[in-house]
Amino acid sequence: MSGHSKWHNIQGRKNAQDAKRGKIFQKISRDLYQAAKAGDPDPANNAQLRLVIDKAHAANMPKKNIDRAIAKASGIGGAKFEEVTYEGYAPGGVAVMVSALTDNKNRTAAAVRSAFTHAGGSLGASGSVSYMFDRKGLIEVLRDGLDKSEDDMLIDALDAGADDMKASDEKFQIFTDPSNMTSVRDALQEKGYELDTAEVTMIPQNRTAVPEDKVKQYNHLIDELTANDDVADIYEAGQLPEDAE
């Protein structure tokens, strides 16, 4: 039994690491797509795309994943990709929005609906949960290695045009109007800040506690959506119990 228990623990850790890596790759894929779509798909002529590619390499993201994300934006291979948003409720009544990039909306819709159904959630109509989220620019600066006090960081953020800032032990989260995110990002970079995140995202207005007996199903939904290559981002309003894995 001890050998089985050790294998189970190792496998559990590996699955958790794989899930975390998948979420990182998913986020980078979306950033690659957006950078290529907004500018030139050739990184030699697109500084923002070069920055995201460097981030992909640092995360050990496979080259085929990088190329696929850029191809989606540039239409290489003749495929036409569309941006689609799905809305629904995860187990426990938690609001979830799913942003996808797809060349086959029927396939993607079926896969997203299946993920919600498998987890005991439900897919809703357009507008069913989006009103619970605010579209904001989000810039994150890690505290590690940063010689700045919270007051100094706040002053620099406000001077750059940010609306608000939240601080934690690990990072500063700077919020902007979506239309100002790029200018605030550039201003902070000019001041010498290294940014961990700079994006326009959906922020939940409130978070819903996930019941302990629904945590496994909730995580299963997020993991299944993350594993779908068509899914570009997941916005969820869940608050997991502190001791949940």
In short:
The chain has 245 residues and is an alpha+beta fold.
Neighbour order of strands in the largest sheet: 3-1-2-9
Biggest pleated sheet: 4 strands, antiparallel
- What's the overall average pLDDT, rounded? 86
CA-based shape: globular
Write the element-wise H/E pattern from the N-terminal end onward. Answer: HHHEEHEEHEEHEEHEE
Name the beta content range.
Answer: 15-25%
Specify the number of helices: 7
- What is the alpha-carbon Rg in Å? 19 Å
What would your notes on this structure say?
The chain is an alpha+beta fold. Helix content is 44%, strand content 24%. The protein contains 7 helices and 10 strands. The protein has helices at residues 2-38, 47-58, 63-74, 105-118, 150-160, 181-190, 215-226; strands at residues 82-90, 94-102, 122-124, 133-142, 164-167, 171-176, 197-204, 208-209, 231-236, 238-239. The protein has a 4-stranded antiparallel beta sheet. The protein has a 4-stranded antiparallel beta sheet with strand order 5-6-4-7, with helices on one face. A two-stranded parallel ribbon has the order 8-10. A hairpin with a 3-residue loop joins strand 5 (164-167) and strand 6 (171-176). 29% of the residues are buried. Belongs to the TACO1 family. This is Probable transcriptional regulatory protein HUK45_01865. It holds the Pfam family Transcrip_reg. Residues 81-236 form the TACO1/YebC-like second and third domain.
List keywords for this structure.
245 residues, alpha+beta, four-stranded antiparallel beta sheet, 24% strand
Task: Indicate the topology.
Elements lengths: L1 H37 L8 H12 L4 H12 L7 E9 L3 E9 L2 H14 L3 E3 L8 E10 L7 H11 L3 E4 L3 E6 L4 H10 L6 E8 L3 E2 L5 H12 L4 E6 L1 E2 L6
Parallel strand pairs: 8-10
Antiparallel strand pairs: 1-2, 1-3, 2-9, 4-6, 4-7, 5-6
Helix pairs in contact: 1-2, 1-3, 4-7
Main location: cytoplasm
Organism: Limosilactobacillus urinaemulieris
Family: Belongs to the TACO1 family.
